[in-house]
Design a protein that fits this description.
One of its GO terms (molecular function) is FMN binding. Keywords: Decarboxylase, Flavoprotein, FMN, Ligase, Lyase, Magnesium, Metal-binding, Multifunctional enzyme. In the C-terminal section; belongs to the PPC synthetase family. In the N-terminal section; belongs to the HFCD (homo-oligomeric flavin containing Cys decarboxylase) superfamily. This is Coenzyme A biosynthesis bifunctional protein CoaBC. 26% of the residues lie in helices and 29% in strands. The protein is α/β, with parallel strands linked by helices and 223 residues long. An eight-stranded mixed sheet has the order 5-4-1-6-9-10-11-12, sandwiched between helices. Strands 2-3 form a two-stranded antiparallel ribbon. Strands 7-8 form a two-stranded antiparallel sheet. 41% of the residues are buried. The structure holds cytidine-5'-monophosphate. The site of cytidine-5'-monophosphate has 13 residues, from α3 and β9.
């Protein structure tokens, strides 16, 4: 069905992992493929939205018709997102942002010396929380990658981050969907409601989640 559910709505999405450099050749990364965020960008575009995608390093092509901004580190992703929130009606944070980054990046490749090497890591900015804390802010959707008690953690995250909606999926051993997978199942909650999106391709899950986000966005931004 050619729904133009989000016609005229500007959607900003962050996707993929971040890479935190240790030295000129090494980094700390994670297993995020970016597939969920890219699928959401395509689904929002198909729903008629004007989409901007801020992406960490992934092996995916930029979706057609989506303004794609490539970044590497959590700090770069934070800056790229914050520079674009002014023009956004909806922000969806799907990126697997590193929570910690090396305190200093070595200028030259670190050599093997002793049996142990210590790295000091410092906290990165929380992008989702920063967007949710803005005075004039978009409708904010966060993701939660948990390995158990998904519903409890999703509700807690909604409050802790000050988001309007949180979508949680089970990842890790034995879980049916999530990182590096083509399928996903989501538990979605907001203040005053919740819903389960059962296991489906990330393309289909993205379509359903965009519909849900549009419903909640309009519920809070009309009359
Ligand atoms: O805090 P936690 O990583 O569990 O929360 C996940 C959500 O917060 C995701 O939406 C993720 O994109 C976002 N996040 C962020 N900046 C961080 C860490 C997480 O935007 N530094």
């Amino acid at each position: 069905a050619a729904e133009r559910l989000l016609s005229g709505i500007r959607v900003l999405i962050s996707a993929g992992p971040t890479r935190e450099p240790i030295d000129p050749v090494r980094f700390i990364g994670n297993r995020s493929s970016g597939k969920m965020g890219y699928a959401l960008a395509a689904a929002a575009r198909n729903a008629g939205a004007e989409v901007t995608l801020v992406s960490g390093p992934v092996a995916l092509d930029a979706p057609a018709g989506v303004e794609t901004v490539r970044v590497e580190t959590a700090a770069e992703m934070h800056a790229a997102v914050m520079a674009r929130t002014g023009g956004a009606d909806i922000y969806i944070g799907t990126a697997a942002v590193a929570d910690y980054t090396p305190g200093r990046v070595a200028d030259t490749k670190i050599k093997k010396h002793g049996e142990q090497l210590e790295l000091t890591l410092i906290r990165t900015p929380d992008i989702l929380r920063s967007v949710a804390a803005l005075a004039d802010r978009p409708f904010v959707v966060g993701f939660a990658a948990e390995t158990g008690e998904v519903e409890t953690y999703a509700r807690a995250k909604l409050e802790a981050k000050g988001a309007d909606m949180v979508a949680a999926n089970e990842v890790g051993s034995g879980a049916p969907g999530g990182f590096e997978r083509d399928e996903n199942a989501l538990f979605v909650c907001w203040r005053g409601g919740e819903c389960h999106l059962p296991l489906a391709s990330k393309t289909e899950i993205a379509r359903r989640l965009i519909r849900l986000i549009a419903d909640r966005y309009y519920a809070e931004n009309t009359d």
